[in-house]
Write a structure and sequence with these properties.
The protein contains 2 helices and 2 strands; from the N terminus they run H-E-E-H. The chain has about 150 residues and is mainly alpha-helical. A two-stranded antiparallel sheet has the order 1-2. It starts with a helix and ends with a helix.
Length: about 150
């Protein structure tokens, strides 16, 4: 079996050597002349291009802002149009005064009532402190009387 393997190996090497010999490159290759390139020449005209394209769609802002108001009421005047840029603290709308004037009057009346209640509570606190001091004096007097009696 070794002999058959060696013979097959020798046959393979001989076939490879023959293949390399047959495919060897030429010693003096012939150079071919390159084919000249064909160039087309055209006149260039200078004119303005105005691209025109018709599209359809829905235009929407990149960002939206949600507005919340401290007061409710009817709008008297709108000072800014939709889509118009605004700066911080800019006045956007003005309201009719009738709607919130009543609410302001009620709030001011409630504030005055609370102030009077606070003043009344301060007076009651002063009276309670005086009453407490009188009671302490009375207790001290009664204790003194209790010690003096046999």
């Amino acid at each position: 079996m070794k002999r058959a393997t060696q013979r097959n190996l020798l046959i393979g090497l001989a076939a490879l050597a023959l293949l390399l010999y047959l495919t060897r490159p030429d010693k003096n290759p012939e150079l071919e002349e390159p084919v000249p390139a064909r160039v087309q020449v055209a006149a260039v005209l200078n004119h303005d291009l105005l691209p025109h394209q018709t599209v359809s769609g829905h235009l929407a802002p990149m960002r939206r802002a949600s507005l919340h108001f401290e007061l409710s009421g009817q709008v008297r005047e709108r000072l800014v149009e939709p889509g118009q840029p605004v700066e911080a603290a800019a006045i956007l709308l003005t309201l009719l005064e009738d709607d919130y004037r009543d609410a302001l009057d009620r709030a001011e009346a409630q504030l005055e009532l609370e102030r009077r209640n606070i003043e009344k509570d301060r007076e009651l606190l002063g009276l309670a402190r005086r009453n407490h001091a009188l009671q302490k004096d009375e207790v001290a007097r009664l204790e003194q009387l209790g010690q003096d009696s046999p």
